[in-house]
Every structure is written in C-alpha cells, then in structure tokens.
Design goal:
The complex is a heterodimer of chains A (159) and B (117). Chain A is mainly alpha-helical and 159 residues long. Chain A has helices spanning 2-16, 23-28, 35-61, 68-78, 81-108, 130-155. Helices cover 71% and strands 0% of the residues of chain A.
C-alpha cells in the first residue's frame, strides 16, 4: 500500500514538471553539481558585474569633459572606503573571469579534456578531471592574490 | 543585418579574441595608474595629459571597442541560455547591438573631447 502511494506520488511529481525547465533558479543552483558548475556560475556573475562596472566607468570618466570641478566631485564619490572596496571586487572579479576564461578557451579547443572512454561505474567523466579542477582553483587563487595587491595599492598609499 | 547572420562558432571566436586582446590592452591601461602613486595618477592634469598622448587615446578607444563587444556578447549569451526562440534571440541581438554602439559612441565622445582632437 505504501509502495503504491509512493509510486503515485512520484508519477504526480514527474507529470508536474514535464517541461524539465527550472529557469533562473536552476541556473543559479550550484548544489547538485561539482566545481565546474560553481565556475560556470562565477564566470557569468563576474562577467555581468564587470559589464556593469564598465558602463559605470565609461560614465564616470565622461566627467572629464566637464572640467576639473566635475572630475574632482566624481572622484569624491569614488575615492571612498566603499569605492575602494568595490574596486577590490572588480579586481578579483576581473582576475577570476580572465583566468577562468583562458581555461575555457583551452577546454573548448579540446586541451586538457582527457581521452573519451566507455562510461563505467562510478561514471567519472573524463572531461571533468584534475586539470580542469586545478584551473578553477588557480583562477580563484590568482583572484585572491590580485585583490591582496589591489588592497595594498588602494589602502596602503603604495604603488 | 549581416551581424545577425554570423554563425555561433564565429561569434565565439570573436568573443575569445576580443577577450584575449582586451587582457593586454587593459594591463597597459592599469600600468598607467601604477607608474606613480594611485591617488596622484588620478589628478585631473595627469589624466588629461594621458589623454593627450595619442597612443594612449588609441589604446583607450581599442579597450572601449573590445570590452563593449566582449561584454555585450557575453550578456547576449547569458540571455539566450535562459530562453530560446527565434524572436527572443533576434530581439536580444538587436538590443545588445544598440547598447554596444551606444556605449562605444558615448565613450568615444569622451576620448575625443578629453584628448583635444
């Protein structure tokens, strides 16, 4: 009786999601997948963040055309603690996006994917190997180092 | 409308190429902020003198074009991944192209005025 009830529940659940679409929620859900999914997610989020920063930067620098006072008042807005913290995010995001992007170019050209083979249990995909994973870790590590250096320049009056 | 007829593989090649070239161009752009203390490099006179250097102005223009193409194509890729239909894809492509041209035009205006061309 319990088995029958469980089966009917499964069938009902399956028929309610026949389209298989999860939309944005599915796109943002990194829990069912490995580091490759986290990397996919971060690549897109950092890309969007950098595009927003780029548009803001083009607008910010356009104040140059209005003379020294306009430029200085724009600097007063950006050269603050909040502005510097935002720049640190931009430094980290751009470093991760660049390094992970280079990894993706290699991946798309077939480099570091491993040889295709028969799918045997426990079904580890040859393409999701240590080379790919280490590429993601290197991207995260370099982003942290870049943020550290950026923090020293922005907050340390250094060069 | 020829841009709308590019194959996705050709667009991806453009995406990768603009990304790699932009990496070097942006590196030079950042170096200009680091050859002296960061705060001093942002002084109005210093920035304007950077813009009066024709090679630096050309570098800024190339960064503007490269990042616009790369960034707005990236946005197009994300939006096309979320939903697929011929109407959606062509609408997104047209909107992205308009935004890209708008940003390039606005940034070019700044470069032309600030460099005194």
């Amino acid at each position: 009786m319990d088995v029958a009830a469980s089966n009917s529940k499964d069938i009902a659940t399956a028929s309610s999601s026949t389209s298989g679409r999860e939309g944005l929620r599915g796109w943002l859900n990194p829990t069912r997948y490995g580091w490759e999914r986290v990397s996919y997610w971060l690549q897109r989020l950092t890309g969007l963040g950098l595009l927003i920063y780029f548009i803001g930067h083009v607008y910010e620098t356009s104040s140059l055309t209005n003379g020294i006072n306009a430029w200085n008042s724009m600097l007063q807005l950006t050269q603050t603690l909040g502005g510097h913290l935002f720049l640190l995010f931009v430094i980290g995001a751009s470093t991760f996006h660049t390094v992970n992007g280079i990894r993706l170019i290699f991946t798309e050209s077939g480099k570091g994917l491993g040889k295709p083979g028969r799918p045997d249990y426990p079904y580890h995909a040859a393409s999701l190997n240590y080379k790919q994973k280490s590429g993601i870790w290197v991207a995260i590590l370099l982003a942290c180092i870049a943020m550290l250096y950026g923090g020293m320049v922005l907050f340390g009056e250094g060069r | 409308m020829a841009l709308l007829k590019l194959r996705e593989s050709q667009i991806m090649k453009i995406h990768y190429l603009t990304g790699i070239v932009a990496l070097f161009a942006v590196a030079i752009h950042i170096l200009f902020r680091l050859i002296m203390p960061f705060g001093q490099s942002l002084l109005y006179q210093n920035v304007i003198s950077n813009y009066h250097n024709i090679f630096y102005a050309l570098l800024l223009e190339s960064i503007l074009i490269l990042i616009s193409i790369h960034g707005f194509n990236g946005l197009r890729i994300i939006l096309v991944e979320l939903k697929q239909s011929p109407r959606w894809e062509s609408t997104i492509t047209i909107l992205v192209l308009i935004s890209m041209i708008g940003i390039i035009a606005y940034g070019t205006r700044t470069i032309v005025i600030a460099s005194g061309l």
